[in-house]
Amino acid sequence: MGIKIHIDVMMARRKIGLTELAGKIDITPANLSILKNNKAKAVRFSTLEAICRELGCQPGDIIEYHPEDEVEQ
After folding, report:
1. Phi-psi domain of 56 (left: phi exceeds 0; alpha: psi -120 through 50; beta: other)
2. Burial level of 28, CB count in 10 A (0-12/13-18/19+)?
3. Where do transmembrane segments lie in this chain (predicted)?
4. Dihedral sign of CA atoms 31, 13, 6, 60 in order
């Protein structure tokens, strides 16, 4: 998939752990982990909004697009 999630980078910058963020955005730690590790197939806008609110960022700070035909380095 050409979409990459960088929640881990923003979490590190904000010094917040997975369990703490999951509690603040009302999502299970397991589901947040799936999203954080680029295993999710979709994300609800309400979840994305909550993540951005808690991390003080924009969606573009945590979501990145790479064309699928690009070779990852």
Report:
1. left
2. exposed
3. none
4. positive
Going by the DSSP 8-state scheme, the letter that residue 16 receives in this structure is -
Say if pTM beats, i.e. exceeds, 0.90. Answer: no
pLDDT per position as a tens digit, 28-42: 999 999 999 999 999
H-state helical runs in 1-73: 7-14, 18-25, 29-36, 45-55, 59-62
**Ranges of each domain in the chain:** 3-65
Domain 3-65: what homologous superfamily? Answer: lambda repressor-like DNA-binding domains (1.10.260.40)
